[in-house]
Amino acid sequence: MDKQERNKTVQEAEAPVVNMTVDKDKVDTDPTRERPRGREYPKSRSQMPEEQLFAFAEYNAQEAEKIGYSNYSYWKSVWANFLKNKLAVILGISFLLMFVFTFIASAIGKYDIYMAPDPINRMYITPNAEFWFGTNAIGQDYWAQVWYATRASILLAVLVSIGQITLGVIIGLVWGYVRKLDRFFTELYNLIDNVPTIIYMTLIALMVGKTMLTMGVAMIAFGWLATARNVRNLVFMYRDREYNLASRCLGTKLGRILSRNIFPYLVSVIILRLALAIPLTIAYEVTLTYLGLMDIMVPSLGNLLSAASAVFPRAAYTLWFPAAIVSFISITFYLVGNAFSDACDPRNHV
């Protein structure tokens, strides 16, 4: 620092301090008057006019309201987090395209699902230009059989899974929140769970029937246990929190407390349960068909796998196609269900 700059710094330090107290009578309160902008006296604030040192802050009611406003949307944040998982998105889109294709496949196919052009001479023909997936034991086009069975199994699995999860969530919410009903539902759970479900299904198939509708209703009637137990345990964690105690003190109805205060915390668990229930239902349908407890007249993936297991060494292709579809559905719903469940967790939202 040279001598001239040092003298300049000393002069600024020794400048007299001006009293900054503002006389209210001298302050210009006219909001329409245009005030000077910028710094006119950059060397010394003490020499700046009061009009530049003090200015009234403008107030706008609409702008003030925006300060406490948030653009956060729960489901918008859920989709944003889910779309970050590229593999889950690709698998989900692929599954939807496959389901749509099950309706198109019958239109582009050459034969109907029940048509057998020549049952004797066309048994177990390997895939070729005429029969894209080959033929089955009675000469039917396996292409039509596979895609019709895929559509039927997916619809059955989705409907049964939705029924199981809906019933399980409702029972689990009431079971966990209403303490007087805890013993009743616990004993009902133990009564049903301690007996193998296949015994119930066998009795229903023999006494009522083996139709797909009957067995679907039976799977719903005995498939809610795991979901209800899981929801009940989670409700125990939330039922006595402060906001629920306040709601009860204010006389809020039970249904509103369960739907507004507790249910949103269970969304991620419910979605994961639903996603995993769909491939499990298909697997259960395959088991029931293999045991002869479901009607084999309606093509389904369980029927095709059951029939292919008997002729696997001779016609391996009859097992490849339905097995590949079942595997794809199971992997897709497992990965997509986990990804969507994580996206629904509020702790993952920023």
Shape: flat
Q: CATH H level of the domain at 91-103 and 146-348: which superfamily?
A: MetI-like
Please give the radius of gyration in angstroms.
36 Å
How many strands in all? Answer: 0
Low-confidence stretches: 15-29
CATH top level of the domain at 91-103 and 146-348?
A: Mainly Alpha
Portion in helices: 55-70%
Question: What is the N-to-C order of secondary-structure elements (H for helix, E for strand)?
Answer: HHHHHHHHHHHHHHH
The CATH architecture assignment of the domain at 91-103 and 146-348 turns out to be Orthogonal Bundle
Termini separation (Å)? 51 Å
Structural class, from secondary structure content? mainly alpha
Biggest sheet layout: none
Query: Strand share of the residues?
Result: under 5%
Q: Output the number of helix runs.
A: 15
CATH topology descriptor of the domain at 91-103 and 146-348:
MetI-like fold
